[in-house]
Amino acid sequence: MQFAQPSSVKEAVTLLVKEKGNSYILAGGTDLLVKMKSGSVEPDLIVDIKGIKGLGEIKKTASGFLIGAAVPCAALAENAALAKAWPGVVEGASLIGSKQVQGRCTIAGNLCNASPAADSVPALIAAGAKAVVVGPKATRKMAIEDVAIGVGRNALKKGEIISGIELPKKLPRSGDAYLRFIPRTEMDIAVVSCAINLTLDAKGAITKARVVLGAVAITALLVKGAAKAIIGSKLDAATLDKLAAVCSAACKPIDDKRGTKEFRVEVAGVLARRVAKIAYARAGGKI
Amino acid sequence: MGVHVHTTVNGDAVEFACGEGEVLLDVLRNRLGLTGAKEGCGTGDCGACSVMLDGRLVCSCLVLGAEVGGKKIETIEGMADGMKLHPLQQAFIDHAALQCGVCTPGFLIAAKALLAKKPDPTEEEIRFGLAGNLCRCTGYDKIVRAVQHAAKEMRG
After folding, report:
1. In terms of DSSP H, where are the helices of chain B?
2. ipTM strictly over 0.85?
3. Which domain range does residue A228 map to?
4. What is the pLDDT of residues A156-166, one digit of tens each?
5. B53: which chain A residues are within 8 Å (Cβ-Cβ)?
6. Is residue A156 part of a domain?
7. Can you identify the CATH homologous superfamily of domain B87-155?
8. CA angle at A56 for the pair A17 and A4, rounded to the nearest 5°
9. By CA distance, what is A33's nearest residue in B?
10. Contacts of B66 in chain A (CB under 8 A)
């Protein structure tokens, strides 16, 4: 096995392209090293991207925020401007693992690992975030919802790496939130999760919304029908009922040791109601 | 092949050679003779191998030795000031916050990291802050009390 610490994204891409065997990118390593330990992954090349300039930074840009691919999740909550603009995104990222894992894990890694229960992914999708994907020929931007394509599978091609995640500027009168259900109080994997980002008009009616469910299908689900159900409303009781029903109907969950299908379907609706209310209040709305 | 690494452990410049896939925990224990950090699970769930890496609390079982070049590592061996125990270490003894002791170095490192950020944590904040450290002996109450006591003493 080879271990490389490139100093630029370009160099990292070249290393990945050249390697004929199994190559893996190391950012936080909280998934990769566990898989190496269990033997489910046997890398021929590990490319540690933490030495690449800029990848460890959160930058405020003209269009919002750029979170470098090597930024540990703990750093998201420490960034006051980010936590203020995108509290839901920060909530999701802050729920991954323990403090120890938080010191290492990254949102780009959480995304590429492509677990359906990834805690940071639903809020990123709800926020309309994009992944900056650098490849051997070009750099492209991918909507977060297009990155995971199955359980443990992502849409990156050989030689491509995510250099950062772009979050848009927060619109006036908008708010986002994320909740997950776990049977413990901390350090667990989502049984169901939900993120909502919404924008209000001056009178408090919802003009834009993105509703995302996690852990109820092979990837996080952007539920367009759920957004439709709440747009135009002020989240009255009937609207919340409709939101819950649409979210429950969108689930395609599995039965596993953490929850049954029926439970996940039910809880998706319950969480959607709660998350919508939090996001609505954060946007300045009053129910 | 192997990797040659220069780094800093508890303020001392250290160099070692390790395998590309060798984790920091094994480097500390087997190459540097620092056996305070323990392997519980080896998968980042139990916190027995907790160390500080460039000021962040991490599981040393989920860090490669090869990636720590030029970084600052702090382990339990650097916690006491010579023969004088850190207030957390003393509080763990005074409150009998350990039985078998395997989890203790990890708890101490994690508790120190918590108190550096929150000098006056609530019981809930202590329990959340230490959720990544598993203890199968004490039932946690004595550990929480020890941390509360040390926090008070450290605030002066």
Report:
1. 24-26, 87-94, 104-117, 123-129, 141-155
2. yes
3. 174-282
4. 999 999 999 99
5. 103
6. yes
7. [2Fe-2S]-binding domain (1.10.150.120)
8. 35
9. B62
10. 3, 48
